[in-house]
Specification:
about 230 residues; mainly alpha; Serine Threonine Protein Phosphatase 5, Tetratricopeptide repeat; two-stranded antiparallel ribbon; about 5% strand
Amino acid sequence: MKKTILTLLIFTAFGLNNLLIGQDQDSLSFIDVDVRKNIAIYQLANQFNDPAVARMALYNILFFSNNQSAVLDSLTLFYYNLNQMPSVALVAKENLKINPDNQVALELGAIALSKLGAKDQALDNYEKLFLKNNDSRTLYQVAFMQYELKRFTESSTSAEILLKRTDIDELKMAFVKLDQTQQEVPMRAALLNLKGLLAQEKGEDQQAKELFLEALNVAPGFEVAQANLSKVGK
């Protein structure tokens, strides 16, 4: 997600300014001037940490802009940064009506829907996103959400596909520890932990134990895997 957020921040800094590039200053209409004014207000409001004014500027830009999908991307990120997940989900959904291939809307919408408990809809977003970006991190989200939805065969298949990918030892996955801080572990460790959970679901406790131990071998101190290991057979 960090990569996506960085991309969005770059977009927010430059994308809105590009909405009117190429127009001669003398040919600007009242609407063009109003859009530029609101772009400036939006940037100043962000600089001065005034989210209410920044949000209203975005809505004003959205009302007049010919590039609504780009503005909706910024509005989705705006709500995401404020942790307003219902608004994230709704804005992303609206954006996908305009552009079903919008990867920003698919990913942020999936995150919001997952946090809101609509995991089946979140999975649908992640599956569509993976078909477009072929990203291992997206496929991991697909695999784990399939597990949460008790689609264990599909989850196992997704995990096996991931384990054959060459980048999983370079990528990191974040997990929440008991003290609510985050711990990053290699994706391989995360996948072995997931496979351990899947083995447990099949009643294969010994296999699950071995997989959790393998995950800990890859990432010593992996708290989630340690907790899962302690529950095997109980």
